[in-house]
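User: My instructor asked us to take a sequence, write out its structure as tokens, and then describe one feature of it. I'm not sure where to start. Here is the sequence I was given:
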Amino acid sequence: AALINNENLVVSAQKDSSILIPGMGDIYTIGTEITIGKALRMPDESNSVLGQGRHRVEIVEFTQWSPYIRVRARLIQEPMDWQRNTEALMRAVTTLFEKVVDLNRNMPEDAYTFAINIDEPGWLADFVASTLNISLEDRQDMLETIDPTIRLQKMSIALAKELDVLELEDQIHSQVQQEVEQAQREHFLRE
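Assistant: Let's start with the prediction itself. The structure tokens for your sequence are:
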């Protein structure tokens, strides 16, 4: 319907995904307005939509529930004035993100390259949040944090936690690798 009417979508997370027919209280009121790039019909007869996030929005009213949910939403304007420490926070987030990308085998290497070319604090925090494997609650908290400097602070903490886990994971992997190599050497010597 959005494609036919040349409209954007409002995407908002459901608080509990096990609820099959959500009501107003089951959907977060802060979401994202997205522009549809492509809608694809998949082999299993489902649809997949490629979209691009445009703005944070607040759902003001649910105007329709069937055959799909329709809402009235207002754009949330991000503050444009930076705090004194914003530039330093951007550098800190970028540095931590580089380390995370280096250690995370599942993250594309060009993610860091993309991040260092972002010059807006809010956009940087949002991009990094979109690449990390963090909980829905943490993602929603980031989305609901309007001030870009505070979002960067939260992202810095999330990156530090992720880095700790990845470093521990790397140590375990190295330890297992050494034990396997030692066992192989011993086997080879016995043979």
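For the description part of your assignment, you could build on this observation: The mean pLDDT is 90. Try explaining in your own words what that tells you about the chain.
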